[in-house]
Amino acid sequence: MAASTALLTDHYELTMLQAALADGAAGRRCTFEVFARRLPEGRRYGVVAGTARVLDAIRDFRFDPDTLDHLRATAQLDQRTLEYLRDYRFTGDVDGYTEGELYFPGSPLLTVTGTFAEAVVLETVVLSILNHDCAIASAAARMVTAARDRRLIEMGSRRTHEDAAVAAARAAYLAGFDATSNLQAGADHGIPTTGTSAHAFTLLHDTEADAFRAQVAALGVGTTLLVDTFDITQGIRTAVEVAGPELGAVRIDSGDLSVLAVQARRQLDDLGCPGTRIVVSGDLDEFALAALAAAPVDGYGVGTSLVTGSGAPTAGLVYKLVDVDGRPVAKRSTSKNTHGGRKIAVRRHRATGTATEEVLGTDVAPPEEPHDRPLQIPMIRGGELVAGLDDLDASREHLRRALVTLPWDGLALSRGEPAIPTTVLPPPRREGTA
Amino acid sequence: MAASTALLTDHYELTMLQAALADGAAGRRCTFEVFARRLPEGRRYGVVAGTARVLDAIRDFRFDPDTLDHLRATAQLDQRTLEYLRDYRFTGDVDGYTEGELYFPGSPLLTVTGTFAEAVVLETVVLSILNHDCAIASAAARMVTAARDRRLIEMGSRRTHEDAAVAAARAAYLAGFDATSNLQAGADHGIPTTGTSAHAFTLLHDTEADAFRAQVAALGVGTTLLVDTFDITQGIRTAVEVAGPELGAVRIDSGDLSVLAVQARRQLDDLGCPGTRIVVSGDLDEFALAALAAAPVDGYGVGTSLVTGSGAPTAGLVYKLVDVDGRPVAKRSTSKNTHGGRKIAVRRHRATGTATEEVLGTDVAPPEEPHDRPLQIPMIRGGELVAGLDDLDASREHLRRALVTLPWDGLALSRGEPAIPTTVLPPPRREGTA
């Protein structure tokens, strides 16, 4: 595992660096923007997540002697380039959307300004983090909407890369999940962790009743007993026999959950356990959660679909050079929706608070209108991190409030257009260039 | 980032441990198996990858004092459990399929034997690694088949979690990719890295010719020039003017690649550059690669679809308890294809070498037939890693040979059934239990 983030980098960034150092272009003042050309198919909004991790990665982007030796031996870099990397430290500025903010096609999530040399080498690590974390948070936010106010537990660690799992738990919590199964996410990010038992625990024992007795003895009657290892009806009966009417919850992890939840609720009520909660899990996604809205379920465990972005495992964000020494630049291509120049973003709203439009001024802020909200905040100034940007609870609350501003159909799970349109304003006409 | 792998763990593994330590079941001798109930939809085989990373993770699964303090404060574990974790060290056995081996539904990729306590806590980290790496390698192998003998470069780091990117590069190389853009994968796994330049490098300069001159000056005429920033025909003309007839390659990263490749080839030939190669990239997957088979392309860069498993970002592997003190165990459920008892796996073949069947004996090896190949090898014995299991080039070669044994339709990209069926043999009748 990398101690520094410096090699979480595509080789071509260093070859470009070398060529630019040689011809002097490396020192040109550049602005790169991170944005999505489009949202994943049918999605109506994206959720910004991972920015605090990006800022840490920029801080930790240093080339130590071992790394330089490795690059000298394998990457065919000249002495000037190796010396540049040895002294590397990002000294520029970063602005961006706060974590928990919504984004739409073209929204400048992150703006990196500095010399070409210092900004170009950050492309890969910046995109890796944001493409992953935004994809997970965007999927998670839809699940939170679909779950209404029921408890949501993230339990997908086993279905994604072991370190991605920690970041996924963070993104899910930011999006409104209540807890995670992932202990490292608890340690790294202060997220509540939870869990009780798996089918293996029941199978380990000679009988289901033995297993339940062991769990209740260790964790108390308030625990959650997993009742579907053999027969669910018998499992619930045994659970109540062992734990009594104060049993905290039962979990069902397989089968037709909407039918089973109704049966389980009736059985628990009949057994005198009206306070025992029902938790369900097993291949749930936002659509399955929505379908369970009318079922007597108290909480959900969500795994695979969360950590794989529910069909959109990457956010498709790009890191594009938009300005060189004050000159707007863009790839000329009819199919790629790219605009040169640095964007200043505001979100327009009605007087009621409903968002109506994402407006991007080029080089200057868009003309002010009532109920505008500026979207970018300073994150790094002269290489120094601005304090206070890694506050997960604040990001969570920010998202909760932002979702309320969407037009009524913006929260629909069905496929549709972005909830609000994005308008890019042209740069102001320069004096003397009529 | 975690120094130890001990917290890459679901909370419930530790609550199960606590309950099992309290009632004495923790010491029962258990066997857990890792397998896929089914392949991702339409896939015909899976590729084992990540095993060497799993073995390292088991070795590094230790709870240091800080971790124990964190768990004491947050995970409601009793003193006995914390002391067990303090002294934790896996002392059991692991057997499994070698990296680069093919697998099918039910194949026991990894078999972990030890006390319940020592084996249950490994579930999450084992599955995280294998579910990710197998998903990537399985997708990558199809791309390698589709690319035939053309050079394949993995360049998807920016579209996945920053550490997952390194593992993805490793899995892609194992599956037959030639190189990666990811420098950390080069440093960690000795994979060749490559890269030249992005559109940003062209946009940085005042003209495309300036950019090409800078790149050629730094990297030589054998470099690859990216010619689609503005107009491809003009870009190729400029590239040849700058680099001369010895220009190594041009890269096209957008547009209809099959049409553009033909035009570029004709233009390069007309300009007297028959040796200049054409590399294409941009949203390629195995189907796009297959469609380019007749186009005059020399190499491919593949990104997003590789690191997201081309529609199957997780392999869906599970870690199931199958044996407790010699007693086969299994969850009773009609829908889940689970068999109790420890499996001994062989692959049957015709005399010609074509694979015909995956046969799993329960508790004992299947009856021997000619041309059987045993599939499991010892990986950990009494807690000690067997040496020599992390040889990427050997795994690569193993896969290459294994793919040749598949029936003719096993390599088809179209949706289909697993290339060979899996048969699970019942356990032998025990003496005296007629």
From TrEMBL, chains A, B:
Where does the Nicotinate phosphoribosyltransferase N-terminal domain lie?
A: 7-131
Under the heading InterPro entries, the entry gives: Aldolase_TIM (IPR013785), NAPRTase_N (IPR040727), Nic_PRibTrfase-Fam (IPR007229), Nic_PRibTrfase_pncB (IPR006405), Nicotinate_pribotase-like_C (IPR036068)
Name used for this protein in its record: Nicotinate phosphoribosyltransferase
Organism in which the protein naturally occurs: Kineococcus gynurae
Q: Could you list this entry's UniProt keywords, alphabetically sorted.
A: Glycosyltransferase, Ligase, Phosphoprotein, Pyridine nucleotide biosynthesis, Transferase
GO molecular-function term, one example from the UniProt record? glycosyltransferase activity
Q: What is known about what this protein does?
A: Catalyzes the first step in the biosynthesis of NAD from nicotinic acid, the ATP-dependent synthesis of beta-nicotinate D-ribonucleotide from nicotinate and 5-phospho-D-ribose 1-phosphate.
Pathway given for this chain reads: Cofactor biosynthesis; NAD(+) biosynthesis; nicotinate D-ribonucleotide from nicotinate: step 1/1
Key word Glycosyltransferase present: yes
Q: Gene3D superfamilies, from UniProt?
A: Aldolase class I, nicotinate phosphoribosyltransferase
PTM statement from Swiss-Prot or TrEMBL: Transiently phosphorylated on a His residue during the reaction cycle. Phosphorylation strongly increases the affinity for substrates and increases the rate of nicotinate D-ribonucleotide production. Dephosphorylation regenerates the low-affinity form of the enzyme, leading to product release.
Q: Which domain of life is it from?
A: Bacteria
What Enzyme Commission number does this protein have? 6.3.4.21
Catalysis: reaction(s): 5-phospho-alpha-D-ribose 1-diphosphate + nicotinate + ATP + H2O = nicotinate beta-D-ribonucleotide + ADP + phosphate + diphosphate
Belongs to which family?
Belongs to the NAPRTase family.
